[in-house]
Structures are given as C-alpha cells and as structure tokens.
Amino acid sequence: MKIAILSRNKRLYSTRRLVEACEQRGHEVRVIDTLRCYMNITSEKPELHYGGENLEGFDAVIPRIGASITFYGTAVLRQFEMMGVFPANESVAISRSRDKLRSLQLLSRDNVGMPKTGFANSPGDIQDLIKMVGGAPLVIKLLEGTQGIGVVLAETKKAAESVIEAFMGLNANILIQEFIKEAGGADIRCFVIGNRVVAAMQRQGAEGEFRSNLHRGGTASLIKITPQERATAIKAAKVMGLNVAGVDLLRSDRGPLVMEVNSSPGLEGIEQATEKDVAGMIIEFIEKNAKPHRTRTKGRG
Q: CATH number of the domain that 144 lies in?
C-alpha cells in the first residue's frame, strides 16, 4: 500500500513510529507537511499538490493534525477523501472532536457519562452557572485550550466568579465543569482503534497539580480498565465517528466520565507505559479497512 502521513514534523515520536510500522509491514510511506499542501478544487478531478507535485496514487492517509491548524488540516484531509483516499480518521470526525462544546453535546445526546458542564455568554449568568455544575470547587476550561493550557481549578465560589469574569472580559469562550475530587488528580487514557480499546494507561498529575497531562509533568503507568470503562471509551469514539482515538476518562463515584476525545492521540506515552506496538495496530487497521472511496462522509458534512 501507499500511505501518506499528514504531519508537520517527521521527527516527532508518533510520526516516526508510524513510518517505522508502515515500513516494517512492507508499505510505501511518505510524510507530508500539511500546511505545504495546496488544492485544485474542481468537480471533474479534485487534486492535491505539494511542492509542485500532484499527490496521487495513495491508498490511505493518516492525519496527525495539530489543534492550531485544524481548519486548514481538515480541508487538506477532505481533499484526500474527495480523491477516494481512505483516511484513518475522517475530516468531519476530527472537526467534531476538536470543537469541545459540540463534542460534549454529542456525547450528552448519546447518554455517555461526563462531568456536569455549563456554558454561558453573559456575566449576569455566572451565579446560576456555578450552581448548575454543583458549586465550587469547579474547573474552568478555555474552549481553544490544549494539553492542559487554559484549564483552571477554582477552589472557592469567589475565585470561580473572578476567573469566569476575567475570561468573559477577554471575550474568551469557556466551559465550566464540576470537579471530580475522587479522581485524585488522575485520569485514564484509553486508546481506541476500530471497535476496541487496544491499550490503556493511567496518568497521574504531579504533586499539587490537578491536571494529569504528561506535558505538565504527569506520569503514566499501566492500568487494567473495567468493562464499563472499556464500553464507555468505545462508545465515545463511535459518537465522534473516530476510528483512532484517545479517550480520556475520570473514575468517579457514578462510573467513568469522559473528559475529552482526542483525534490525534500521541503514541509515546501509551507505548512506553503499556509496551504495546500501537503504531503497528493502526497500520493493521488500515490494511483491513482501506478501500477506495470507503468513507462515511466522502468529504461532506
């Protein structure tokens, strides 16, 4: 097979591992800088160009699109889809998962467990919004934040009011979520491929830090998940329409709660914690499923 990997940096661990997995399984692979692609949008023969070359003949594409380039990245991926190339994750599914508010609304519609979440626009609604999610302590999240950036724990009602007012004063879109104290600063990353969880790890925040992101000094360890956690992770990925996803769960007194569904989950932490060849499993999934024009949306939506 001829496989394209959309990535801005071929030296990143995840990109390198995907290249290795492709080569080990005898596939031709090429890393393509997403932002260097440009398109000929025509109904007769849609084309994608890269450095003066017409990109054609690919069987599959693996999108590793950073959050900061979601708009352009999904446009490039959509062009691949219109050309009949099989995507590991479809453009519409990536767009859904990147919109934090939309993704939570979709999870809520399908009765997937998640923390109580509030969203408002007017400072006059702050008091009721805080009450809606169960009061302080609570978590305030910037909609555009990634890797734990723009996430604040407000321990008192006064602190919550001040932080929310400050964000609203900057015209920032924010979510207010209940703080799950019993999670103890830890969450579970379930790596979903197709219809199964292929690996899972627990991420524990550094001392005094409620965010468990590895980029913020958190540590990862192997964990055995429950059947309910497994089912929740698979359902969350399915609701988003993602074939490959990192689903972040919190263990709460009322069962597993989904915090986020990541469409470009990193491979380094999960492979090192579990010692599993997750990159190889992604390529295996593509081998079994890649057929021309085999996308649910075909670039529409």
A: 3.30.1490.20
Tell whether the torsion through CA atoms of 219, 118, 121 and 70 is positive or negative.
Answer: positive
At 2, give phi and psi (nearest 5°). Answer: -110, 115
pLDDT tens by residue, 136-171: 899 998 877 565 577 888 889 999 889 888 888 888
Residue 157's CB is within 10 A of a number of other CB atoms, namely: 16
d(CA 200, CA 197): 7
Dmax of the chain from CA atoms? 61
Same domain, 140 and 279: no
Identify whether the C-beta of residue 209 lies closer than 8 Å to the C-beta of residue 218: yes
Contact 130, 161 (CB under 8 A): yes
pTM value surpassing 0.85: yes
Q: How far is CA 299 from CA 24, 239, 255, in A?
A: 30, 18, 36
Cα atoms in the 13 Å half-sphere on the side-chain side of 147: 10
**Residue/partner pairs of 161-167 with CB below 8 Å, 24 or more apart:** 161/126, 161/127, 161/130, 164/123, 164/126, 164/129, 164/130, 164/140, 165/123, 165/126, 167/140, 167/142
Residues 193 and 267 in one domain: yes
Q: Is 161 exposed, middle or buried (0-12, 13-18, 19+ CB in 10 A)?
A: middle
Share of the chain above pLDDT 90, in %: 65
188: Cα within 13 Å, side-chain hemisphere: 24
If asked whether residues 253 and 108 sit together in one domain, one would say: yes
194: left (phi over 0), alpha (psi -120 to 50) or beta: left
Phi and psi, residue 100, nearest 5°: -60, -40
CATH code of the domain containing 20 = 3.40.50.20
Q: φ, ψ for residue 272 (rounded to 5)?
A: -70, -35
Quote the DSSP letter at residue 52.
T
* In a shared domain, residues 102 and 218: yes
